[in-house]
Design goal:
single chain; disordered N terminus; globular; repeat; Methylamine Dehydrogenase, Chain H; mainly beta; about 45% strand; 5-stranded antiparallel sheet; histone binding; about 375 residues; 1 helix; WD40_repeat_dom_sf; WD_repeat_RBAP46/RBAP48/MSI1
């Protein structure tokens, strides 16, 4: 692997990275970085966490983005951490050749490693596991096709591409994909073709093609879709020209949540602790916090210097929001803090734009992030800072 100096990364980014590396021992209670063969546009922690002999074992779901230079893959990673609440990976254990923070043999732990690779047709824009059965994984691709895999039916190393279910409807690239948390085997997708599609996989019959049970059409491209956590029939979706809408399948009603800006909205996240609160991030680096009852944003602020690509509320501390951006940073915000400065922490260890992030289901302050620099980071801010 090339060193930072030998790569085509600009000088300013290299300087920022070296500064971050120098200061990292003061910033984190835990950090582990790993280099991937290709960037991943997607990251999800799987909900099943195993605790054995003082160790916590988790799994991360990623996908490859090779720009057609290699066969694409759906990737499952193993992550292991000392279960002690005061466990700490010494950030000074830095491998300058690999450009990674590494686990030493004396720690008794294992670095992030690949558990399974599954052959995939097309770049993996998003991969999400079904809440009711995490072994079922849906993906959406650069051409809008959706594939559903049962990972237990695939070997640990890739063979030929073969998904269990293939869903074809979208005509353009898609990034929006969300399983219904309250109804098993129900999935919703959206894409740059301006379409939203509901899929009820309970209706799927082997050997036959399947159409969406419900569709919505917009005049602009759509970027993200999520289910309202407290409801089994309401979704929110966002897209170009500042589109932000909610849809209820019970009566086929759609409402718009408006704002003055016409910048495209890239992502949204519903707050699991506040039934009516949702955050959105746009291409101008703005975050809006909305009350869906009033259909208005009650907070709007400049969060990043470039487009916001992903954001997610913390599942435990409901006032905490993480956001990732093309400006190479992941930021943690504290909206329970009534002061003007609600920025809590900045993770500046990536050398290219962040593509996705996720909170660990086991450690309330631990995050995973992936970026265009082929890296995956698992990190936890210092308790002295948060």
């Amino acid at each position: 692997m090339m060193t930072v100096e030998e790569s085509n990364i600009d000088d300013a980014t290299q300087v920022n990275y070296k500064t971050w590396k120098k200061n990292s021992k003061h910033l984190y209670d835990y950090i582990q970085t790993s280099a991937l063969t290709w960037p991943s546009l997607t990251l999800q922690w799987l909900p099943d966490v195993e605790k054995v002999e003082g160790l916590t074992k988790s799994r991360l779901l990623l996908g490859s983005f090779s720009s057609g230079l290699a066969e694409e893959q759906l990737i499952m990673l193993n992550f292991m951490k000392d279960a002690s609440p005061r466990s700490r990976l010494n950030p000074q254990k830095y491998d300058s050749i690999k450009e990674e923070f590494v686990i030493t043999a004396s720690s008794g732990l294992k670095p992030i490693n690949v558990q399974q690779r599954i052959s995939h047709s097309g770049e993996v824009n998003r991969a999400r596991s079904m809440p009711q059965n995490p072994d079922l994984i849906a993906t959406i691709t650069s051409n809008g096709d959706i594939n559903v895999f049962d990972r237990t039916k695939h070997p640990s190393q890739p063979t030929k591409f073969q998904s269990e279910i293939e869903l074809t409807y979208h005509s353009k690239e898609g990034f929006g994909l969300s399983w219904n948390p309250r109804k098993e085997a129900q999935l919703v997708s959206c894409a740059s073709d301006g379409k939203v599609a509901y899929w009820d996989l309970n209706r799927w019959v082997r050997g036959t093609s399947m159409s969406p049970s419900t569709t919505i059409s917009e005049s602009v491209g759509l970027n993200d879709v999520k289910h309202l956590p407290i409801h089994d029939s309401i979704i929110g979706y966002v897209g170009e020209e500042s589109v932000f809408k909610m849809h209820d399948t019970r009566n086929d009603e759609t409402i718009s949540l408006g704002r003055e800006s016409h910048s495209e909205i890239n992502c949204l996240s519903f707050n699991t602790g506040n039934d009516y609160c949702v955050a959105t991030g746009d291409s101008d680096g703005m975050i809006d916090i909305w009350d869906i009852r009033t259909r208005k944003a009650f907070k709007e602020f400049k969060a990043h210097d470039e487009d916001i690509t992903c954001l997610e509320w913390n599942w435990s501390n409901h006032g905490i929001l993480a956001s990732g951006s093309g400006d190479k940073t992941c930021k943690i915000w504290d909206f329970a803090n009534e002061d003007d400065d609600q920025l809590l922490f900045v993770h500046g260890g990536h050398m290219a734009g962040i593509t996705d992030l996720g909170w660990s289901p086991d450690e309330q302050w631990m995050l995973g992030t992936v970026a265009y620099d082929n890296s995956v980071h698992v990190w936890q801010p210092s308790t002295a800072l948060v």
